[in-house]
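HUMAN: You are asked to prepare a plain-text protein record giving the amino acid sequence and the backbone structure tokens, both parts labelled.

ASSISTANT:
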Amino acid sequence: MVEQYRSALLDRANPMGISQRGTGAILVRFLTSLDEHAAECGPEELGRLGAIARDLAAVCLAEHADAAREVDAGAQAPALLERVKAFIEHNLDDPDLAPGTIAERHHISLRSLHLLFRHEEESVSRLIRRRRLERCRADLARPELAHHSVRDLAARRGFPNASAFGRAFREAYGLTPREHRRRSMSGAPTDH
């Protein structure tokens, strides 16, 4: 039994990508030492050493599999990021759209979702907020929606709290939603 593990792992350690550091180094040294001293051991000792070799090999293979999953996840990250962004765009009007619901719908952890956005210009929350504000700003400038209140338009775009919407709009555009609407309807410039 020990001979099987020793020859299989020593012969294949490098092609399998088993690290020569940490657990991989311990396994390789253990198997090398076992190869050198196996003749000095009795059958019971060899059986116990075989079980140790099996356990060390299992730990190394598990680490190798975890590393492969991380590489695979890294390769899939750009496609997942695009799916998440499309999902956000499609669901902006849902007042329950938040990082937690997005992560849940994509079967990833909240931490993984935030990691997807780590190289983006804005976080997932800021993206949602910016895109909602842009939609509200466009709605407020549309004459055919003039009969809708600012509060209704904001709620329709995922801002159920009118005062929070007003503060966010003013922070983003330098004027209140009503001022923006008035200027848009009069043809006056609305940028600050």
